[in-house]
Specification:
161 residues, alpha/beta, three-stranded mixed sheet, two-stranded parallel sheet, globular
C-alpha cells in the first residue's frame, strides 16, 4: 500500500512500531519519524501520471491532513506534534489545510476559547485563506445535536479570526 509519507526522508518504514490509535482503541504498526523531514520526491507522482494519461479533465484527490499524518506515525525525533504536522503541511504542499478543531471522540462541545486557540495556533503557520477548520475525523460518531453546535461554534470562531 502506498503511503502519503513514502517520499519523505526522515520516515523509517523498515522499522515500524506498534502504536495505539484513536485514543488507544486499537494498535497498529506505524512508521517512525527518526530524522529531520525532507522531501525526496513528489507524493503520489506515479498516481497523478496514471490519472493524467487517462483523462483530459482536471484531477483531484484528497490527501490526509496533518493531524491524520501525525496520528499515524511515531515521532522519535521532533517531540512536538504541532511542529511535525506543520512540516508535513509544507512538504506535501497542502493548498488548503483542514485543521481539526472539534474532537469527535467526545460529547463535550468545545469552548469558544478552545476553538479560537486551535485556529490561532494554525494561523501561526499558514494564512487564513489556506485554513479550513473542521472536525478531527468526520462527524459520524457524534450525537447530531452536539455535532451541529460544534460546527456552528467552529464557523463563528473562524469568521472572527
Amino acid at each position: 500500500m502506498r503511503c502519503h509519507t513514502e517520499q519523505v526522508q526522515g520516515s523509517d518504514f523498515e522499522h515500524k512500531v506498534t502504536m495505539g490509535m484513536r485514543n488507544n482503541r486499537y494498535d497498529a504498526q506505524v512508521p517512525q519519524v527518526v530524522a529531520a523531514l525532507r522531501l525526496k520526491g513528489r507524493a503520489y507522482a506515479t498516481e497523478v501520471q496514471i490519472l493524467q494519461a487517462h483523462t483530459d479533465r482536471e484531477i483531484k484527490f484528497i490527501r490526509p491532513g496533518p493531524e491524520t499524518i501525525v496520528d499515524t506515525v511515531a515521532d522519535r525525533f521532533y517531540d512536538d506534534r504541532v511542529k511535525m504536522a506543520m512540516i508535513f503541511v509544507r512538504l506535501l504542499e497542502g493548498k488548503v489545510v483542514m485543521v481539526g478543531v472539534i474532537n469527535v471522540a467526545s460529547d463535550t462541545v468545545e469552548t469558544r476559547e478552545h476553538v479560537a486557540d486551535t485556529i490561532g495556533l494554525a494561523l501561526q503557520y499558514m494564512p487564513k485563506k489556506r485554513l479550513l477548520p473542521c472536525t478531527n475525523c468526520g462527524l459520524a460518531p457524534m450525537d447530531r445535536a452536539i455535532a451541529l453546535r460544534s460546527i456552528r461554534l467552529g464557523l463563528k470562531q473562524f469568521d472572527d479570526a
